Amino acid sequence: MKLAFTTLGCPKWNLDTMITYAVENGFQGIDFRGFQGEMDIFRTPAFSSQREETKQKFDQAGLEIPCFSSSVRLYTKSAEQFQTYMEELKNYAKLCQFFHTPYIRVFGGTIGDIAREQAVEIVEQNLKGMLAIAEEYQITLLLETHDDWTDCGYVEEVLQRARSPYLQVLWDVHHPYRIAGETPEQTWERLGGHIRYTHWKDSYKSSNNKKGYQLCLMGEGDMPLQRIFQLLQTKGFKGYFTLEWEKVWWPDIEEPEVALPQYAAFMREMG
């Protein structure tokens, strides 16, 4: 079982602290979603002018960067927005090549009031350019079960339109169950053949915020985590089990010093 965590969970940590916690708690990778206040990590010194030093630190620690979690959306509202995402994607593709990272996470995006069929057509058109970058750099884009593309049927349609080995799925195990009301088995039945990577979190229903749920430490909510884990094991999943501790968006949840070791221990107990 390969464990990782995203940097959303430790927004104040420097690189050395991340690496130390990863090694001490038995993680195999760190998934970068922002770094010390900058979401586009290719703009930071650690991943531009100092990237050789960064790579050396990861190599010496025996750690991987299994995925760069971008802000790229497949659905866009304008040509300008599309070009912005194309530039971001190209920058992450270059980092993937340098760090031997196989995946870039992308979102479907919020479509608003537009008809879904029209949104899918825009996504299909945008993917032609985006997948050309993926093929050029020999990396895979992972569409996350998230936002207006949480429902497995919506994700499946995009995959069918794209018909490309360079577009696969990141199963955020939380969102389809909590938001779309899918069982883990339903999600796997539609998307299992394309799932290459997973995000993990736990929660319970709550009326105290607009989302309708409260994030919590693993095992303290009512997500069917053991059931999902056993399903993945049964199906022979070999990818990463990555904690997405959303400290950036939920500042009141536990500190990473608590959440990361707890996650690693919880997952090993399940395994």
Explain the overall architecture.
The protein is of the alpha/beta class and 271 residues long. The protein has a single domain (2-270), classed as TIM Barrel, CATH 3.20.20. The chain has helices at residues 15-24, 51-61, 79-99, 116-137, 152-162, 174-178, 184-191, 225-234, 256-270; strands spanning 2-6, 29-31, 67-73, 103-107, 140-144, 167-172, 195-200, 202-205, 213-216, 240-243. The protein has an eight-stranded parallel β-sheet. Strands 8-9 form a two-stranded antiparallel ribbon. It is globular, with a radius of gyration of 18 Å. It starts with a strand and ends with a helix. The mean pLDDT is 97.
Compile the SSE list and pairings.
Blueprint: E1 2-6, H1 15-24, E2 29-31, H2 51-61, E3 67-73, H3 79-99, E4 103-107, H4 116-137, E5 140-144, H5 152-162, E6 167-172, H6 174-178, H7 184-191, E7 195-200, E8 202-205, E9 213-216, H8 225-234, E10 240-243, H9 256-270
Helix pairs in contact: 1-2, 3-4, 4-5, 5-7
N/C terminus separation: 8 Å
Give the CA-based shape: globular
Q: Which range best describes the helical content: under 10%, 10-25%, 25-40%, 40-55%, 55-70% or over 70%?
A: 40-55%
Low-confidence stretches: none
How many distinct beta strands? 10
Question: Major sheet, described briefly?
Answer: 8 strands, parallel
